[in-house]
Amino acid sequence: MEWNFLAAIGRVALKFMTAVGHLSLFTVQTVRHIFLPPFYLRIFLRQLMQIGYFSLPVVGMTALFTGMVLALQIYVGSSRFNAESAVATIVVIGLTRELAPVLSGLMVAGRVGAAIAAEIGTMRVTEQIDALVTLSTNPFKYLVAPRVLAGMITLPILVLVADIIGVSGGYLVATESLGFNPSSYIKNTFDFLETRDVVSGLIKASVFGFIVSLMGCYHGFNSTGGAQGVGRATTNAVVSSFILILVSDYFLTVLLLD
């Protein structure tokens, strides 16, 4: 009984290490092909639109209501020790350093990561990727590298837009519902905001964009088993992106704290 238990733990550990090894090799191959020609500019520009422009509505709506709720919650907490004037400062720092990059990353993972995994997974199970290889086209250069590069570039832009929309949402609630003076609120917003607050959020966003697009490509590229396999790849891409975003967020926060 005891040996069976240890054997089960060993099988899980070996399976986990094998998956880590495959993902590491896939990541190295992807990064290598991002910098080496040929470059497929048309596919890259199409991915900029798919990942960036078409994600703007969902990211904007998320940022707007997050900023509005954040202002209300901070007002309730700060009013208990007469610190209502800190609402504007906490809203802008909370959004730029943490909430905008994390929530945007999760939204893009749900929308774009799943779509990438489904598209590439369908190409894998219908042998279209094998056809690319037959035509002397490297699937890493044609399918993976443009998507990962586009994810790394577009997510910081989305987060910058989310910062502006989220702060505007907090401003609307503070001035229209909580009775803040508009000029004082804007002054408190910019007086305590530092460049590193915004930059740290954009660095996080670029890492999250890499994670989301890489997970979508990895699970789609390795999908097997027809339509059910594509479904599993889509689910695994979203779940693994969520977990890696939250884990990497902690380590990035520690790294960028000073």
Q: Which word captures the global form?
A: globular
Main β-sheet description: none
Low-confidence region ranges: none
- This entry's quaternary arrangement is single chain
Q: What is the element string, with H for helices and E for strands?
A: HHHHHHHHH
What's the total helix number?
9
How much helical structure, as a percent, in the residues?
over 70%
How many runs of DSSP E, i.e. beta strands?
0
Please give the alpha-carbon distance between the first and last residues.
Answer: 51 Å
Q: Write down the overall mean pLDDT.
A: 91
Q: Structural class, please?
A: mainly alpha
Radius of gyration: 22 Å
Beta-strand percent range:
under 5%
Tell me what you see in this structure.
With 258 residues, the protein is an all-alpha fold. Helix content is 86%, strand content 0%. α3 (56-78) packs antiparallel against α4, α4 packs parallel to α8 (195-221) and α8 runs antiparallel to α9. The longest helix is centred in the middle third of the chain and has 39 residues, at 87-125. The termini are far apart.
